[in-house]
């Protein structure tokens, strides 16, 4: 009797559980789909804004870590294989950043590699091979080493979204090395101890657009011209400076001018390009002259103007940047 009772009870319980399970499955099929963790395919390229006096800037990457910054998350995705320019899979990748300036880039992680991330906020860390990272200066065959502290360059947060996708050979995300901001010489011209790359000026972007344009010969004849990009709210236009750098020396009077978001030197033919800009409204201003803009110290250049203080005829331009589009302007 006890055995029979146990079997009968088991049958009743099993039947009840199956009924509950069937009902739950029928009512929660949609919820299961919602609860299923969505994934975003990841692909990555690298680009650069040109820097003065350098012929080549090589950086060799051993691996890339993507750190999920969600509260309580300990997830880190490490990528240790790359896609080179010939679409070959390689263990490390060495890039001359000056070969990919303005709106150009080199894809180093292809979507076909199958890297998928949960949408959210991440930080990206580049693990650099010191021996393969160096600067070649104009008319100088010496390899001036690039030093990255602990061989790791950790960048600020960026958003991974499902709407950012690779299109052809154009990756969903790009690491933009603005070397005019981030590359700093250790020592001086007479005692060059190599260079460092600071996280300031290196950023990860997606859903970006670009700006291309020309500067008239009447302006380029004044000397080297630089185009500066500012937020749409800027009312005073500053040159490059970094108040967070330990070598920064604050001027006696408080700085009220806005720090440029990006900048680029105008080519000898009057052309320029600034790439990988998040969509939005911006301002462009021009400075032409013989002075070199120090990327740490505030030089107090009058912008827009020439280096001798002569006001340029070119006005500050307001530019609307849209995703996947290049906006054309002229000074």
From TrEMBL:
Coiled coil: none annotated. PROSITE patterns: PROKAR_LIPOPROTEIN (PS51257). InterPro entries: DUF4382. It holds the Pfam family DUF4382. Keywords: Signal. Residues 40-199 form the DUF4382 domain. Residues 1-19 form the signal peptide. This is DUF4382 domain-containing protein. It comes from Psychrosphaera ytuae.
